[in-house]
Amino acid sequence: LRKNIPYARPLFTESFYRLLSTRPERKLQDKVALITGGASGIGRAAATTFINNGAKVIIADIDQQHGRETVKELGPNATFVTCDVTKESDISSAVDFAVSEYKQLDIMYNNAGIPCKTPPSIVDLDLESFDKVMDINVRGVMVGIKHAARVMIPRGTGSILCTASVTGVIGGMAQHTYSVSKFAVIGIVKSLASELCRHGIRINCISPIAIPTPFVMNEMNQIYPHLESERLVEIVRNVGVLKGANCEPSDVANAALYLASDDARYVNGHNLVVDGGFTSFKSLEF
Ligand code: NAD
């Protein structure tokens, strides 16, 4: 009112208008997002952040128990679908569910991933675990993109995200099979960006440093069964480099929010590292 009729007597106090103008912007208002591996860790944090920013979120996870618990906690804007990303039919159905339930899919976040047991050398490579990791971390991502593109291309818009890792930026930081899978995720994003951008679809990935989610802590428990869980969390946190801050799932979720939103409307084919600077200046010491 004050803007349109400059001399109008204000209906409310100045502080009320200020309060309105500083209300946090909801960057994903009315957007629909599907998040694989959304029942835990980074995916769960992304679901929370997306919903807080006005999105409807479908959590697609193999873990039914945690998936159902998560949507109960997140409220009416979250839905759970059982999805094993190694099964194309599960991913296809999850995408179709988004379209039938919410009429559209705006954001596809291919986040589900697993670690790999650590053999001491390439000579001990176990092909069964190699295939399993590739099936989830690489093939699952590729199939996720395929089905997201299937429904996004006709609308001429969409944002696709994937979770890679700093171990896909610098070799030799983690078990080789896992590292290879994350190099592949970054490669997928870079190689598909040119095709998808012709349809108005952006594709980007995020590479976090170590975060003590169940994913990492289960691994740590196996490597150091004699250590207390607090000590293990401390070890994981020590990989971090930024003084006074630990990397949290919410840090990755905020990066995902940026890439998913129109704030990143000209960002495509990018790998956004969330590592406190680790890959910029620590790599030589590692
Ligand atoms: P997490 O274990 O907390 O969550 C992973 C989720 O993926 C779980 O809910 C699990 O049930 C689900 N999942 C596993 N296999 C699946 C399948 N076949 N189909 C569907 N869902 C499946 O782990 P997180 O740390 O949140 O990991 C999420 C992603 O982040 C992974 O891709 C991981 O590689 C990546 N990442 C994690 C870290 C870290 O330090 N935690 C660092 C860099 C990258």
Automatic annotation (TrEMBL):
Belongs to the short-chain dehydrogenases/reductases (SDR) family. It holds the Pfam family adh_short_C2. This is Zerumbone synthase. Transmembrane segments: none annotated. The keyword Ion transport does not apply. One of its GO terms (molecular function) is oxidoreductase activity. Keywords: Lipid metabolism, NAD, Oxidoreductase.
